């Protein structure tokens, strides 16, 4: 059964955040809130976590996992960003965007797109997520909590606990955080390509 933690969305309890971070370091798969919708997350190098996310979401090896980062200093360790793209991304973050970029050697090979050698990265604008990332000290390997054959992600922590009780280890609930996934923008081919229109406003890129 999954452990269930309910935290305040603007002032999350420090002890709870510490407990969740320790669980992640110990190999736990966590359902947690973001500024777009709930996500599944695990430690960066957790092969078991990757396999479990693939199983829950029924994903193939072409799926872009996302490294959810606390800030640009962290993000820059894992992707290659030229100056123009850096300025464009910096102007849009933190926020509900995922950017696909060429990965550095710091990214475990099993996370990479098999042909492009790319990975998704983002910096969320959500108090609870930021608190968890600060406590963890490294990115969370993540994927939207969108179940197979369902059109919208799960939005309620209690429902996530009820439906995924035996396949995740921790549910971190800070209330409803919406149903719209991030806007996904691919910069890996040299030109901006909108892969998915989502919660992030695209007008700044047009």
UniProtKB/TrEMBL annotation:
Q: Which E.C. number(s) belong to this protein?
A: 2.7.7.87
- Record GO terms (molecular function): L-threonylcarbamoyladenylate synthase
Q: Which domain of life is it from?
A: Bacteria
Start and end residues of each YrdC-like domain = 14-200
Which terms are listed as keywords in the entry?
Answer: Nucleotidyltransferase, Transferase
Q: Which Gene3D superfamilies does this entry report, sorted A to Z? A: DHBP synthase (3.90.870.10)
Mind telling me which NCBIfam families this protein's record contains?
L-threonylcarbamoyladenylate synthase
Q: What is this protein called?
A: L-threonylcarbamoyladenylate synthase
């Amino acid at each position: 059964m999954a452990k269930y933690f309910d935290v305040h969305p603007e002032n999350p309890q420090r002890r709870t955040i510490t407990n969740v971070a320790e669980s992640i370091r110990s190999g736990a798969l966590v359902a947690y809130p973001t500024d777009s919708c709930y996500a599944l997350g695990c430690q960066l190098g957790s092969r078991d976590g990757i396999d479990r996310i693939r199983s829950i979401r029924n994903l193939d090896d072409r799926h872009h996992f996302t490294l959810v980062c606390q800030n640009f200093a962290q993000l820059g360790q894992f992707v290659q960003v030229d100056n123009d793209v850096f300025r464009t991304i910096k102007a849009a973050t933190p926020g509900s965007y995922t950017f696909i970029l060429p990965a550095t050697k710091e990214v475990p090979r099993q996370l990479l797109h098999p042909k492009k050698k790319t990975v998704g990265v983002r910096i969320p604008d959500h108090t609870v997520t930021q608190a968890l990332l600060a406590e963890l000290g490294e990115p969370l390997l993540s994927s939207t909590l969108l179940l197979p054959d369902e059109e919208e992600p799960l939005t309620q922590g209690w429902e996530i606990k009820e439906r995924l009780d035996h396949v995740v280890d921790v549910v971190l609930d800070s209330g409803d955080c919406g149903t719209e996934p991030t806007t996904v923008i691919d910069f890996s081919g040299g030109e901006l390509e909108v892969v998915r229109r989502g919660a992030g406003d695209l007008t700044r890129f047009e």
